[in-house]
Write a structure and sequence with these properties.
There is one protein chain. The protein is of the alpha+beta class. Helices cover about 35% and strands about 30% of the residues. It has helices at about 40-50, 70-85, 140-155, 165-185; strands at about 5-15, 15-25, 30-35, 55-60, 95-100, 105-110, 120, 130-135, 135-140, 155-165. Strand 3, helix 1 and strand 4 (about 55-60) form a beta-alpha-beta unit. Helix 1 (about 40-50) runs parallel beside helix 4 and helix 2 packs parallel to helix 3 (about 140-155). The chain is globular. The two termini are about 20 Å apart.
Length: about 200
């Protein structure tokens, strides 16, 4: 059975940022990311690669003030695009989980494409939120990005940092674990007929 194309393209412009984003949930993990925030480019590239989502992001923003607005706004647009591309969610696995190491860091992520936005995020070491990763990306932005994505995509996501010392490794393991769990959840399950919910809608 052929599945409908699961793609989306969105543009969003505010006084703080301008974003053009397109994605294909059934891609091969190809990406072209230009956010003006190099570490976030690295994280979005990892998300695309490990979730098998083709992703193109071109963004400009007031990063001379802070990366906050640009990163948050990309998270909002990415989440909105994911929700749009998922359509009615017919035939998907719905649930996904992953345990991903990066050297000394270890992160577990669990995703439910539930239609109910909820994020449980825990385990980052004390002081992580204050660390400047790459000299410009504040550790606190990791949770903030997941909040933006999960809320606007309608996902239930649990991200648990089980171990880690280096902030770069911890952040990257978080994005990779989320990507792998999302990859499972969005995948079509040949045993699923219709929408995988007793309510008949997600």
């Amino acid at each position: 059975m052929a599945h409908p194309s699961r793609t989306a393209r969105l543009q969003r412009a505010t006084s703080e940022s301008s974003i053009d984003l397109s994605l294909d949930l059934d891609g091969t993990g190809e990406s072209s990311i230009s956010s003006g925030v190099p570490f976030f480019d690295h994280m979005l590239t990892a998300f695309a690669k490990h979730s098998l989502t083709d992703l193109t992001v071109t963004a400009t923003g007031d990063i001379a003030i802070d990366v906050h607005h640009t990163v948050e706004d990309i998270g909002i647009v990415l989440g909105t695009a994911i929700k749009q591309a998922l359509g009615d969610k017919s035939g998907i696995s719905r649930f996904g989980d992953a345990l991903v190491p990066l050297d000394e860091a270890l992160v577990q992520a669990v995703v439910d494409i539930s239609g109910r936005p909820f994020l449980v995020h825990s385990g980052e070491p004390a002081g992580f939120e204050f660390h400047l990763i790459g000299g410009h990306f504040t550790g606190s932005m990791v949770r903030h990005v997941f909040e933006a994505i999960t809320f606007h995509a309608g996902l239930t996501v649990h991200v648990t940092v089980l171990g880690g010392r280096d902030p770069h490794h911890i952040a990257e393991a978080e994005f990779k674990a989320f990507a792998r769990a999302f990859r499972q959840a969005k995948a079509f399950d040949p045993l699923v007929s219709g929408i995988p919910s007793t309510k008949g809608a997600l």
